[in-house]
């Protein structure tokens, strides 16, 4: 029995699971989801952060399913299609369904695996994964048991609290950035079925904190934008980061990038966040 590694990423998927919008007024939800300002931010981060990190994977033996919706306006569909074609491992799906369960099922059921085991992971369209992420998943896979979670909780956060774009270390147990779920056979469960933070109360979990596995961005276009200032402050406090430690933080960040994101420089990431945030404010 061999292993299949399959990732899922939602890109402006029109359904209750994505932007935490109210779908009581479907027209308003559609306008909010596909607002030009929001889409420019998502495309910028997808093209210049997400895609390079997927293309840079050392282990190329995986599939990444980018899930969007058939109702997405045609110009955005064309733009997304062109970007996804630049990375061999990506398969783009424009789903007719508004349920992620229906969209992911063809990739997780026994018929699609043909007896292989499955290691699923998820990543947001405005985040990035370490170039060793897939390699690390595969390395741990022989030790995983059926219905087991693998979490890589150490990463970097890219944010702006009014003092300019900043990179800082981030530790978040059971983070959704790269959340992985192993099953020995096919399953109807997908990585979006979990409340990532509370899943450890029900399932056996393995944690690998030895690499900087993700970069998570915080922008005005994010689903939880109204909570960002509080979340960022809590993450910084949880990591013991204060102003007087800035020099040490910069060293850790540069070391993390050199080891796990060698295709990114600090200046590139800071400029990227600046322009992505500007997209929202300029058109919003």
Please tell me about this protein's structure:
The chain is of the alpha/beta class. The protein has one domain: Spore Coat Polysaccharide Biosynthesis Protein SpsA, Chain A, CATH 3.90.550. Helix content is 37%, strand content 20%. The protein has helices spanning 26-33, 36-55, 74-84, 100-108, 110-113, 133-140, 228-238, 246-260, 266-283, and strands at residues 3-10, 63-69, 90-95, 117-122, 128-129, 148-151, 154-159, 166-171, 180-183, 204-207, 214-217. The strands form 2 sheets. The chain has a 7-stranded mixed sheet, sandwiched between helices. A 4-stranded mixed sheet has the order 5-11-7-8, with helices on both faces. The protein is globular.
Summary of the model, kept short:
The chain has 9 helices and 11 strands.
Radius of gyration (Å):
18 Å
From the 3D structure, determine the CATH topology: Spore Coat Polysaccharide Biosynthesis Protein SpsA, Chain A
Hey, roughly how much beta strand do the residues contain?
A: 15-25%
SS class:
alpha/beta
Number of helix segments? 9
Q: Can you count the beta strands?
A: 11
